[in-house]
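Much of our argument rests on the idea that a fold can be written as discrete symbols. The amino acid sequence and the backbone structure tokens for this protein are reproduced below:

___
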Amino acid sequence: MGHYAFRDINRRKSRQIHVGSVAIGGDAPISVQTMTNTVTADAKATIDQIRRVEEAGADLVRVSCPDEDSTAAMKAICKAATIPIIADIHFHYKRAIEAAEAGAACLRINPGNIGSAARVKEVVKAAKDHGCSIRIGVNAGSLENELMEKYGEPCPEAMVESALKHVAILEENDFREYKISVKASDAFLAVASYKALAEAVDCPLHLGITEAGGMISGTVKSAIGIGNLLWAGIGDTIRVSLSAPPEEEVRVGFDILKSLGLRSRGVNIISCPSCARQGFDVINTVKTLEDRLKHITTPMSLSIIGCVVNGPGEALGTDIGFTGGGAGKGHGQIYLNGAPVYRIENGDLIDHVVDLCEKKAAEIEATHNQAAE
């Protein structure tokens, strides 16, 4: 599709850190992460779930470490994972040290909850010794008592003050490989907090609307909150928090980035909601195609439109397109690179489109490989 100035998103300039092999901030792509919901001590179940989020495209995965059994399992988990592991630490500083020793690439902590300055210093030393970065995780639901007494309720000022207090703790220990999140389940509060924080620090920001809800409601709330910030150029890594399997969080995260033109992965399907004009069963066709095209990671676009009202126009901007011939026609038009090429029967549509997408992916990858040689 053509380039239009109104599509430009100017990303906030942040310094860059690393979570294992993944660069966060600066000019690095906005990364997508999720979190396991298995019992961490069950290493096999946790590794199996990590495999699924890896296949969905996750760049990073967070694993909760609430007890010694969990950190004991982390060595096997970190070794098995092909993406960096973030250890989620809430209170006990020893769990952070154990997770760093086990191979975690990042520690998600609330420095104010770790305890004394000496304990924080030990955690920072472990992070330095083992090449870990740190995420300062501020949450509206667990703000410090003194901030709640000062402000009376969670508000952007309280969220940012909490974050900056924790930044000071790390900076005092000469540690700068950190990123920050200021999450809330209220999208308005989260967006306002992130916007204020973005003005106050130069580190990367981790975006999320926490406890967003179920698959549909949580996706909508996350798209509004995270999308609002990304559109404003704020955000370097994202996690969509859903009461749904972690791999679904990853897919929604990529869909948010794709909708803003910030990152592409896999087949971006443009489809109509269907109506009486449709020449085939659009809804079930798209549902089947989404499932059968999951294995393709190469970025490309596909339009599936029920009739000729908008179909040809949508096909102009996609790599592959199919437009139904209209109710009762039994066939439709295939478009390649925006041009009408031939017609096929509706019954052949799914297999044919899957084949076209697989061939297009191979063609794109071959071109990239030749360019790289």
